[in-house]
Backbone:
């Protein structure tokens, strides 16, 4: 498949952003390709289009599946596996937030809980105890908030986000540059 200039720019940029987010560039580019085209593609087509090794595509597809960002699709009369992603940006956003929370945020919250529950924690300085407890409270609150946000429908979530921007303008004042 030949990429248009627009498609190429999108895929290349998404790959660069993936690297900034801690995701392998090829993984991000494959996801961008699937999202941009909005139709299932097979691994050989992906490898040829992105000019990357088939083995790299296979590894990247497995990683995207582990993140629940792609799924296997089948085409009648073709035995190959095809891969597709959601074309709904809200669904993708929710999946990414949910997966990152589960992989990065929740383990940290568990460690903080374990530290506070450890009998040796009482031997730490009062200031250190306060900082750890405050970090735990903050993360608990943020975790509960994110869970509530993930339960909202995309329409309601968009309204909440817009409302949040309006509240910020109100709190800062119309003339503030903050």
Residues:
């Amino acid at each position: 498949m030949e990429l248009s200039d627009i498609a190429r720019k999108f895929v290349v940029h998404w790959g660069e952003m993936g690297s900034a987010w801690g995701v392998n560039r090829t993984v991000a580019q494959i996801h961008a390709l699937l999202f941009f085209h909005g139709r299932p593609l097979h691994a050989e087509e992906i490898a040829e289009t992105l000019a990357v090794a088939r083995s790299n595509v296979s590894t990247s597809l497995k990683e995207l599946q582990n993140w629940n960002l792609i799924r296997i699709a089948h085409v009648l009369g073709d035995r190959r596996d095809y891969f597709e992603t959601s074309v709904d940006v809200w669904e993708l956003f929710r999946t990414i937030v949910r997966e990152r929370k589960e992989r990065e945020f929740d383990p940290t919250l568990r460690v903080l809980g374990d530290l506070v529950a450890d009998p040796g924690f009482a031997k730490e300085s009062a200031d250190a105890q306060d900082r750890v407890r405050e970090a735990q409270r903050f993360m608990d609150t943020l975790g509960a908030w994110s869970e509530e946000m993930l339960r909202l429908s995309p329409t309601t979530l968009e309204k909440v986000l817009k409302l949040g921007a309006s509240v910020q303008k109100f709190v800062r004042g119309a003339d503030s540059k903050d």
Notes: Helices lie at 5-20, 25-37, 43-50, 54-66, 89-117, 126-151, 154-172. The mean pLDDT is 93.
